[in-house]
Amino acid sequence: MSANGIGASVRRKEDHRFITGKGSYTDDINREGQTHAYFLRSPHAHALIKRLDVAAARQAPGVVGIFTGDDLAADKVGGLICGWMIHNKDGSPMSAGAHPALAQGKVRYVGDHVAVIIAETYSQAKDAADLVEVDYDVLPACVDLASADSPGQPQIHDNAANNTVYNFHLGDKAATDAAFARAAHVTKLDLVNNRLVPNAMEPRAAIGDYNSGEDAFTLYTTSQNPHVARLILSAFIGLAPEHKLRVIAPDVGGGFGSKIFVYAEETVCVWAAKKVGRPVKWVADRTEEFLCVAHGRDHVTHAEMAMDEKGRILGLRVHTKANLGAYLSTFSSAVPTYLYAPLLSGQYDIPAIYAEVDALYTNTSPVDAYRGAGRPEATFVVERLVEVASRQLGQDPAQFRMRNFVKSWPHQTPVIMMYDAGDYAGTMRKALELADYKNFGKRKRESARKGMLRGIGFSAYIEACGIAPSAAVGSLGAGVGLWESAEVRVNPTGNVEVLTGSHSHGQGHETTFAQLVAGRLGIPIEQVSIVHGDTDKVQFGMGTYGSRSGAVGMSAIVKALDKIEAKAKKVAAFALEASEADIEFKDGRFSVAGTDKSLAFGEVALQAYIAHKFTGAQLEPGLKEGAFYDPTNFTFPAGVHICEVEIDTDTGVTQIAKWTAVDDFGTIINPMIVEGQVHGGIAQGIGQALIENAIYDKEGQLVTASFMDYGMPRAHDLPHLELGFNTTPAPSNPLGIKGCGEAGAIAAPPAVINAITDALGHEEIAMPATPQAVWKAMQKSAMKIAAE
Amino acid sequence: MYAFDYHRPQTLRQAVNLIGRTEDSKVLAGGQTLIPTLKARLANPANLIDLGAVPELRAITQKGKSIVIGAMVRHAEVAESPLVKSAIPALADLAHLIGDPHVRNRGTIGGSVANNDPAADYPAACLAMNATIITTKRKIPVDQYFQGMFTTALEEGELISAVSFPIPSRAAYAKFRNPASRYALVGVFVAVKSGETRVAVTGASNGGVYRWTEAEAALKPRFSLAPIERLAKPPSTNMNSDIHASADYRAHLVYVMTKRAVAKALGR
Amino acid sequence: MPKISMTVNSKQVSATVEGRTLLVQLLRDTLRLTGTHVGCDTSQCGACVVHVDGEAVKSCTCLAASCEGAHVTTIEGLAQGGTLHPMQEAFREHHGLQCGYCTPGMIMAAVDLVNRKGFDLDEQLIRSELEGNICRCTGYHNIVKAIAAGAANMSAQPVARAAE
């Protein structure tokens, strides 16, 4: 391992600009002549727009333009799309309602976009919005997920009967029913996976810019995948041909999934820039983010697990209702289906699984991928079931899990996935050791002496990352391929620019990708720069989400580096006057085998460009190679997280007393960064388990629309985190990387809830386990004890 | 924010004159509540009178057996004041629990007491310690001052200049934070002076800060934990109920926080 | 409209602003010091923390006009002559940032914390003093480590404190 190569905790190259205040986020960018947009939003969850009069607002000071859905329709601007076609049980396609960027006659959630007001200043735009007259015919709202498909509920989209987008299923129903029929024991649970707001610290923002001389647009936007945004804005929404639309995602302040999607606001900013002939900037305030960013999770599930008399799992049966909100966001349909049901086998050898998912519209903000996306929901189902089953059978939860773990690889689950490598029992043993499991009883007694209830909870999660083999996802309904691209440009002086289709918004790609390149080429890491986030610079790429940038994005770089090395060897052969077969490349030097003749990488680069030692007939000059990498399988990060809680019996306050995580992410490029990813994921998972909850009232008003009411984890809500690794390389990609970005958010919620239920001695606690919820649960058990 | 005319008086007299002269004015103290309110366009004053440059309202002094805190004294100053820490440590403790360090560097006692947010901390201290609210016009006994959430005895144009706290023999504040906003979901301030015990509760009631008289009566014979432990929990009628805490839970927390405040006051 | 003047990062500045202009708007929009960020509307996230007369303040909850005559330090003013402040260096060294958005406010809050509580900070104190700063990326784990280390390093470099 070199000082800066794979495996080294290299300090991040990108940090200097962030710690000195020199980052360049979308709102830090200002274009000459820029105007400011404010979106007038629906105050009602469900209403017909009877009249929309912007005449008075148009006269307000500073107003440059006001547009409504009619204006977009007149320009034939298409609606927002959902890029993944899911089919119903009967094979028919899902029912997707129209999703105009500005409402056309009807609003479907609080915050839905009614009009855009563009003015010289943001305050003027907001002032003018007060003068827009809208008469609404308020309709009853459908908010409750559990009953959204019941007859008689308000109909949100005309073409989605009973507000049902699809009834999906996966697995073998007959085999699963048979497994349950012969079961000695069945564990049943009703679970709610609470709705979350991603809350990246940088609110979304966009600047649309139109150059009439070139008849071309530029969009600066807070995106995790600028090329995909451009493709959608171009091919589906129809704003401009792809080559006339440049999308720049500069520094982006966190995404967690929420910045994958193409939203109404950026669509309108691009279109309106041409209408008003000036750049149009929009920056969300936090309340708008709460109302309109795509939310995450929001499932209600009934799940059953069948076991034989020894506690071997025989089968799993799951029925989930998934809330997709008022419109289908970009990838929403895939989340509760192919990112969820195929993960229901967990780390376990389960012979039969059958899952049904009903995806429903409600009059709430759209719901789409949020850190983990489908996999946290699946893990919550599996790990709650397993924990409860072990308790019901009187077995140690760790032993119960180990008995049922997959023990050999490759392992084909009954729900699509082929697990290719792992060491689940080894990871569990390491976690038990690190968590000092054998002394838990002692710690529990110590807590009891302080008047506190202590509990321990496990979560043995698995995820499918490295998203994804294009042909496989194509067969499942994806509208795009999910490969990644890279281009390695070696300059004549030997420094290197790597253009990647991945996008870093906190993950540290500028460092980890440079580590790979520097290590491989034997050059100082300072001589490598990573270029991303600009469709004019970078060849097409698919962006960053689903823990894919290491496994897929870096694999593309490896492929390009292979080509660079091959080409450079040819150059070196000419320069060193040797046979290409005799050229060896090691530690940044090309040498002729068995001689002392050699050239440094930079010298070979120069030779490639001056091209004095070979003719055009012999070799093309230059040293620049591109590659597209399409994975051959998903990757399967897995691990065990162990949570210990202490509960204050007076108040119901839960403190995380101890957290242990042992993860298998395959090859780790930069341990410091990987640990940071785990920390952040766990924090979001603990947030979901303890305080985060997006709540709508019966009328569809979001009650938790600010940090005053939506609990965001603060530093003292979170524990010190003890991390460990147990690595088995992924066999499907050249570096053996599995991915790490989502693990913590997937693992944490069931670990916390399992610990709380262990402490309380009963299972009835929903997320988030707020002090009030825990206190109420304790009241119930006290009543139960009294009644017994 | 809607537009307004900004005024920055240099003396208290100028400030009072400005309030008298201007229509539809609001007074800006530390701004930690008012500015977010203005940003959310929940208020639309024509004039904003910033007390930030007024020098008179910034002192913490001892007058006889009372600590007098100027209206523009910031929470951080109360929390760190050697005088407050030695005379009424519970008050310094309370100030330290308000908001966060940055909010405490701006927010003022006068602003908090004038606003009377039902989840604010200072009203509990004022009520429990039988404080006197000193204004530009008069001295208002605290029992007449707080009149329900966001409502006080302050008249149009009347400014708080200081709050005077009689030094208690024992006092403590126990706060249960709202997990999201970190305001008081329930806060209980207990104070003993000259044989009288007062128990003031903030955050819990839909009527704003109030005295829990049953607890006061229970503690009257002897200030100790036992009588509180024997006391029935307060009824949940009149308790706030929202997504963060039901009336039941708030009533329970009033009981628990009272117990904790008493224990703390006893040095336990 | 009030005409105001103040010292920002040791430079005298003056501007004519609306009464409703926030300090953060003056810094970002007028002075183009975009290192100070806005992450919420309710004075909670702390991405906007700057120092006003040596104290940490949420610049989104402070009128520009209220800072007449004040000395304001932003993240851009922390490094001296190309040398990073020890707290900046500690955030880099301990991976105390990911997306970087909350970082300027975090660092300014951390320096203020050291100014108030000294160089020897334990984990519990740091965690409780971070009440006013929200980070969504790091789980705070490395921020806490960075602040403890940065504080210790500040004691070795007292000049860093005098920068303000």
Give the strand tally of chain B.
Answer: 12
Q: Tell me, what's the shape of chain A?
A: globular
Structural class of chain B: alpha+beta
CATH topology of the largest domain in chain B: Uridine Diphospho-n-acetylenolpyruvylglucosamine Reductase, domain 3
User: Oligomeric form of this entry?
Assistant: heterotrimer
Largest interface: A-C, 56 and 54 residues
Percent in strands of chain B: 15-25%
Largest sheet of chain B: 5 strands, antiparallel
Biggest sheet strand line-up of chain B:
4-5-8-6-7
What is the succession of H and E elements of chain B? EHEHEEEHHHHHHEEHEEEEEHHH
- Taking the alpha carbons of the first and last residues of chain A, their distance comes to 64 Å
Count of separate structural domains of chain B: 3
**Shape designation of chain B:** globular
Portion of residues within helices of chain B: 25-40%
The class by helix and strand makeup of chain A works out as alpha+beta
Can you list the strand order of the major beta sheet of chain A?
3-5-1-12-9-10-11
Question: Please, could you describe this protein's structure?
Answer:
The complex is a heterotrimer of chains A (788), B (268) and C (164). In chain A, α14 (509-521) packs parallel to α15 (549-575), α15 crosses α16 (601-610) and α17 (671-690) crosses α18 (743-760). Chain A contains 19 helices and 28 strands. The mean pLDDT of chain A is 96. Chain A has 788 residues and is an alpha+beta fold. In chain A, 28% of the residues lie in helices and 24% in strands. Chain B has three domains: 5-50, Uridine Diphospho-n-acetylenolpyruvylglucosamine Reductase, domain 2; 57-166, Uridine Diphospho-n-acetylenolpyruvylglucosamine Reductase, domain 3; 170-265, CO dehydrogenase flavoprotein, C-terminal domain (Enolase-like, domain 1, 2-Layer Sandwich). Chain B has 268 residues and is of the alpha+beta class. In chain B, 34% of the residues lie in helices and 23% in strands. In chain B, the strands form three sheets. In chain B, strands 4-5-8-6-7 form a five-stranded antiparallel sheet. A four-stranded antiparallel sheet of chain B has the order 9-10-11-12, with helices on both faces. In chain B, strands 1-3-2 form a three-stranded parallel sheet, covered by helices on one side. In chain B, 54% of the residues are buried. Chain C is built from six helices and five strands, in the order ββαβββααααα. Classes of the chains: A alpha+beta (788), B alpha+beta (268), C alpha+beta (164). Chains in contact: A-B, A-C, B-C. The B-C interface holds B 1-6, 8, 28, 31-32, 35-36, 38-40, 48, 50, 52-53, 76, 99-103, 105-106, 181-182 and C 2, 18-20, 22, 41-44, 46, 49, 55-58, 60-63, 65-66, 68, 109, 112-113, 116, 129, 131-133.
